[in-house]
Amino acid sequence: MTDIAKIAQPSNQIERRKGDRRKHTRIHLSRATVSRDNRRTVGEATVSDPRIHCTDVNVFYGDKPALRNVTLDIGCQEIIAMIGPSGCGKSTFLRCLNRMNDTIECCRVTGSIMIDGQDINDKSIDVVPLRAKIGMVFQKPNPFPKSVYENIAFGPRIHGLAKDKVELDEIVVTSLKRTGLWEEVKDRLDQPGTSLSGGQQQRLCIARTIAVNPEVILMDEPCSALDPIATTKIEELMDQLCTDYSIVIVTHSMQQAARVSHRTAYFHLGDLIEVGTTEQIFTKPVHQLTEDYITGRFG
Amino acid sequence: MATRLEGHTFRRFDGELARLHTEILQMADLVYDQIQMALESFQQQKLDIIRVVNEREPQVDAMEKSIDNTITEILAKRCPVARDLRVIMAFSKLVTDLERLGDEAAKIAYITTTLYNNEHSNPSNYLLRDITVMGKFACALLKEAIENLDILDLERAEKLLNSHDDLDEEFQSSLRRLATYVLEDARNVGHIINIVLVMKSLIRIGEHARNLAEYVVYMVSGEDIRHAEIEQT
């Protein structure tokens, strides 16, 4: 080999390798984008260890279907966010999970919603313990017109969770501490719950929910009436609570869904369109409708 | 199929994305022009063009900064997700490739100056023949990649990435040819070193063109196909 050829050799080899690599790299792209017309759920709707297992849930208001064939699992220790435009059925689905739809006369629910091996729509199920097991936090903070202490103590007392005053006090303190409210309200436990600020009232409602040892917490737009700081506090609280509870949150804020949830489900006109990890939904949604909605290209 | 970036309900976002896209295309056009001019000056000994290339080099850098600024603004104001996020991330990354393409043009311009502004004789035409061929391949590849930046077509990007690497093949045979020229006349060494440096620049231009195509694939499909050899091994 000549000298100059030797000098050229290392670079020659490197370039040859690159050339080979280029030639042999065949790109197989998954063009998985699902068209707008397809209304079957895409993505992983089921999980290996579901706390709630919903199969083919249909909801009708009179004759009008509000939710069609929704199959979705709520996993343990997960925050799952429901997103979608108004009227898409996400709140209806949320209310199915603790039979809040029973309060609407013309509402009919079919399909199965299993928790701990029992269908919650079974006639033998008592909704009072069910709603303790699957607690709910609403859009507007709605503390009872009672003292801060009584707001928390009311649930455990009627469910018989405390033997005596000492145990009840302990539940109240623990619940308030878990929601980060203790330091803020410990000196005014006897004052009305409604005297707290909006964010504090919402945390009081969450404390009231967790005081009865739920398994699942349903949150229907829990931050829409709160300022950004109170919102951050609730989000941080959700992050802490999800180690013990499953949290289902309905939110109109896509950024909130992206910030707090582990999985995201997108609903559209009564259909569950796509479910996936929050990372996947917000970076690589598969369904065209999901992409249109989250990027603000809707309607 | 071309990818549309517009269609947002809030149309101002469309406008901002369109402005960013236009800035990217303007910068791509500028660096393509720079490379063509630098190559022309190298091949045809047009030293007056070198001045233009050198004068416009800061423009390329300024455009990079301006695009980065636009991207930061969009990220702060719009919190983009899904395809919008991928497009903006890819634009933010490929602007670096564009800036480096500008650097390659400046490099070729610098080599041209050293090649012709010295006391030795100019290189013979047969020494420059390979540059002409490689230059054509590199420019064609870059032109295709830049045109596809306009329409963001997945198929075209795939076609480019799967195309035969003419540039690399030509580089291999050029090296062999140049080695024989050195053996024939050792006085060619100085010129040949400069010529090989320009060839390396052309190879880099080809690599950057392929990077641009990879970013288009990412924007449209969400597949990150960079460094595909990592998965292969």
From TrEMBL, chain A:
Pfam families: ABC_tran (PF00005). Transmembrane segments: none annotated. PROSITE patterns: ABC_TRANSPORTER_1, ABC_TRANSPORTER_2. GO terms for cellular component: membrane. InterPro entries: AAA+_ATPase, ABC_transporter-like_ATP-bd, ABC_transporter-like_CS, P-loop_NTPase, PstB-like. Keywords: ATP-binding, Cell membrane, Membrane, Nucleotide-binding, Phosphate transport, Transport. Residues 52-294 form the ABC transporter domain. One of its GO terms (molecular function) is phosphate transmembrane transporter activity. The keyword Zinc-finger does not apply. GO terms for biological process: phosphate ion transmembrane transport. Residues 1-24 are annotated as: Disordered. The keyword Cell membrane applies. It comes from the Bacteria. PANTHER family: ABC TRANSPORTER I FAMILY MEMBER 17. This is Phosphate transport system ATP-binding protein. The lineage of its organism: Bacteria, Pseudomonadati, Pseudomonadota, Betaproteobacteria, Nitrosomonadales.
UniProtKB/TrEMBL annotation, chain B:
Its main location: cytoplasm. One of its GO terms (biological process) is phosphate ion transport. The keyword Oxidoreductase does not apply. It is found in: Cytoplasm. Keywords: Cytoplasm, Phosphate transport, Transport. The keyword Transport applies. Residues 24-111, 132-216 form the PhoU domain. GO terms for cellular component: cytoplasm. Belongs to the PhoU family. Plays a role in the regulation of phosphate uptake. Homodimer. This is Phosphate-specific transport system accessory protein PhoU.
